[in-house]
C-alpha cells in the first residue's frame, strides 16, 4: 500500500491544498480509496482523516468500495434524462444484475448514474472506461456490453 | 473604527466586526442556533437573518458571519421581510427535524404556521447540521474527530468511515454545545458511550469510591496539558466524593449564621448566581 501511495503523496509534497488531486490519483490507482491509503495521506500531510473523509464522500468521482474492471457511467443529466436515459440505466442494471452504484460479483463492471457527462448533444449518453457512446437506445446500450464480454472471452 | 446604524442606532465598531457582534453590543437580540462566541461563525442555521442596506442596495444576510467593512452601512433586525425569511428558515429546519423542542418552541414563539409542513425525512432526525460539534472538535479540542460527510440530502456529521475513531476522547464538548440534543452521551457498565460517533470509551475511576468519572484517555491528555501549564496533577475524585471531602474540611469552620429573611439583600438579576458572601455580610 505504502509503496503505491507514497509516490503519489510525494508528487504533491507539502501542498495540503492538493488533497483532491491526491485522492484522484489514489482512486485511479486502486479503483477506489482504500482506508489505509487515506490514513497514510493524513499522517504524511498532517491533514485530519475526518477532512479527507469529508472530501472523499462529497465528490461523486471518488469511490469508497472497490470498483470493477470496467466503469459504466449512465448520464442522467437533464438532456439525457428527457431522451430516456432512465430506460438505458434500467436495461443495464437488469442485464448486469446490479443496482446503480454497485459492482458485479466477478468485479468486472461497476454501474454508475452520473448527473452530467458534459456532452448533452450526444444524449442519451453512456461512457464505458472514458469511451463515450452517444444517441443510444436501451437495446444498443446492452449491445455495447456484448462487445466487452466478447473481448474478454 | 467604522460607524454603522443598526435599527436606527449608531454604533462604532472595528472594521470586520460581524453584524451580530455589533448588534449585541447595542443590546439588540438576534436569534441564533449555530453561533458560539468561542467558535468561527458558520452561517448554517439562517435564523440570524437581517436586512442590510448598503447605500440603497438591499439584501438579507446572515448577521453571524457578515463582516461590517465600511461606514454608512445600515442594518434592520426586525422588518417584516426579515421575519418572513427567518420563519422560512425555521420551517425548513422543522421539515428536517420536526421533533426537536428548541425548534418547536421557536415556532410557537414566532407564531409560525406548521400546518403545511412537509417532512423531508422520517421525522426522527435531531441534527440540524449547525456544525457546532464539528467546529468545537476542530477549533477548541483540536482533535478533528468528526466532520461533515456526504452531501445534499445525505449530508451528516460523522467520524471517518462512519466508524469508531481513537481521535474521540469522549470529552463531550460536542454534546454540550449541540442546540438540539442530537448527540447523546451515556454511561453503561462503567464505559462512556457516544453512539452517534461510535465511541465506546474506558473510564478512569474515582480514587475514593471507585465510580467511573471521566474517560481514561481524556484524563491522560488533560493531565499532560495541565503539566505543560505548570498545574499540579490532582487526585481523581468523582463529584460526590469531592463534595464530601470539601464538606469534611469545611466542618472545621464555624457554620455561617444567616439573619432573618428580610435582611437579605434585594433580589439580584436572575442571570447571576446568588452571592453567598454578600448574604453573609447582609446579616
Portion in beta strands of chain A:
5-15%
Number of helices of chain A: 7
Query: Looking at the structure, what is the overall shape of chain B?
Result: globular
Discrete helix count of chain B: 8
Question: How far from one another are the termini of chain B?
Answer: 48 Å
Summarize the structure.
With 153 residues, chain A is α+β, with helices and mostly antiparallel strands. Chain A has helices at 2-11, 19-30, 35-45, 49-58, 78-82, 85-96, 138-152, and strands at residues 70-75, 109-114, 126-128, 131-133. Chain A binds chain B through residues 35, 38, 48-54, 57-58, 64, and chain B through 138, 144-151, 158-161, 165, 167.
Overview of the structural elements:
Helix content of chain A is 49%, strand content 12%. Chain A is α+β, with helices and mostly antiparallel strands and 153 residues long. Chain A has 2 domains: 2-58, no CATH class; 70-152, Glutaredoxin, CATH 3.40.30. In chain A, helix 1 (2-11) packs antiparallel against helix 2 (19-30), helix 1 (2-11) crosses helix 3 (35-45) and helix 6 packs parallel to helix 7 (138-152). The two termini of chain A are 31 Å apart. Chain B is an alpha+beta fold. In chain B, 28% of the residues lie in helices and 19% in strands. Chain B is built from 8 helices and 13 strands. In chain B, a hairpin with a 6-residue loop joins strand 12 and strand 13 (212-215). Chains A and B meet through helix 4 of A and strand 8 of B.
Could you give the topology of this structure?
The complex is a heterodimer of chains A (153) and B (283).
Chain A: H1 2-11, H2 19-30, H3 35-45, H4 49-58, E1 70-75, H5 78-82, H6 85-96, E2 109-114, E3 126-128, E4 131-133, H7 138-152
Parallel strand pairs in A: 1-2
Antiparallel strand pairs in A: 1-3, 3-4
Helix pairs in contact in A: 1-2, 1-3, 6-7
Chain B: E1 2-6, E2 9-13, E3 17-18, H1 19-25, E4 49-54, E5 57-62, E6 67-68, E7 74-76, H2 80-96, H3 101-109, H4 132-140, E8 147-149, E9 156-158, H5 173-177, E10 185-188, E11 191-194, E12 199-205, E13 212-215, H6 216-228, H7 239-250, H8 276-281
Parallel strand pairs in B: 1-7
Antiparallel strand pairs in B: 1-2, 3-6, 4-5, 4-7, 8-9, 10-11, 11-12, 12-13
Amino acid at each position: 500500500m505504502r509503496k503505491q501511495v507514497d509516490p503519489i503523496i510525494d508528487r504533491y509534497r507539502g501542498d495540503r491544498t492538493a488533497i483532491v488531486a491526491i485522492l484522484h490519483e489514489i482512486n485511479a490507482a486502486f479503483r477506489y480509496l482504500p482506508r489505509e491509503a487515506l490514513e497514510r495521506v493524513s499522517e504524511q500531510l498532517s491533514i485530519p482523516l475526518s477532512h479527507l473523509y469529508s472530501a472523499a464522500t462529497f465528490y461523486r468521482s471518488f469511490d469508497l468500495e472497490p470498483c470493477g474492471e470496467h466503469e459504466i457511467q449512465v448520464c442522467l443529466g437533464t438532456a439525457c434524462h428527457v431522451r430516456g436515459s432512465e430506460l438505458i440505466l434500467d436495461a443495464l442494471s437488469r442485464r448486469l444484475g446490479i443496482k446503480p452504484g454497485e459492482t458485479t460479483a466477478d468485479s468486472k463492471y461497476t454501474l454508475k448514474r452520473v448527473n452530467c457527462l458534459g456532452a448533452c448533444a450526444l444524449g442519451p449518453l453512456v461512457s464505458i472506461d472514458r469511451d463515450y457512446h452517444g444517441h443510444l437506445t436501451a437495446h444498443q446500450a446492452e449491445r455495447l456490453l456484448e462487445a466487452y464480454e466478447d473481448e474478454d472471452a | 473604527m467604522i460607524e454603522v446604524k443598526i435599527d436606527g442606532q449608531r454604533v462604532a465598531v472595528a472594521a470586520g466586526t460581524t453584524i451580530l457582534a455589533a448588534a449585541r453590543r447595542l443590546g439588540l437580540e438576534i436569534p441564533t442556533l449555530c453561533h458560539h462566541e468561542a467558535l468561527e461563525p458558520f452561517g448554517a442555521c439562517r435564523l440570524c437573518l437581517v436586512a442590510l442596506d448598503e447605500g440603497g442596495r438591499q439584501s438579507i444576510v446572515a448577521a453571524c458571519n457578515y463582516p461590517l467593512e465600511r461606514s454608512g452601512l445600515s442594518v434592520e433586525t426586525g422588518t417584516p421581510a426579515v421575519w418572513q425569511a427567518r420563519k422560512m428558515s425555521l420551517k425548513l429546519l422543522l421539515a428536517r427535524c420536526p421533533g426537536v423542542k428548541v425548534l418547536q418552541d421557536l415556532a410557537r414563539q414566532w407564531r409560525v404556521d406548521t400546518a403545511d409542513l412537509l417532512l423531508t425525512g422520517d421525522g426522527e432526525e435531531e441534527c440540524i447540521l449547525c456544525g457546532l460539534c464539528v467546529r468545537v472538535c476542530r477549533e477548541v479540542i483540536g482533535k478533528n474527530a468528526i466532520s461533515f460527510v456526504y452531501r445534499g440530502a445525505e449530508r451528516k456529521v460523522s467520524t471517518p468511515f462512519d466508524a469508531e475513531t481513537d481521535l474521540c476522547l469522549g470529552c463531550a464538548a460536542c454534546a454540550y454545545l449541540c442546540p438540539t440534543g442530537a448527540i447523546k452521551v451515556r454511561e453503561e457498565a462503567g464505559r462512556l458511550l457516544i453512539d452517534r460517533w461510535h465511541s465506546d470509551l474506558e473510564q478512569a475511576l474515582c480514587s475514593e469510591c471507585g465510580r467511573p468519572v471521566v474517560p481514561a484517555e481524556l484524563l491522560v491528555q488533560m493531565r499532560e496539558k495541565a503539566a505543560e501549564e505548570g498545574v499540579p496533577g490532582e487526585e481523581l475524585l468523582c463529584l460526590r466524593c469531592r463534595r464530601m471531602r470539601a464538606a469534611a474540611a469545611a466542618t472545621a469552620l464555624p457554620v455561617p449564621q444567616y439573619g432573618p429573611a428580610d435582611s437579605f439583600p434585594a433580589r439580584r438579576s436572575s442571570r447571576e448566581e446568588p452571592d453567598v458572601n454578600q448574604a453573609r455580610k447582609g446579616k
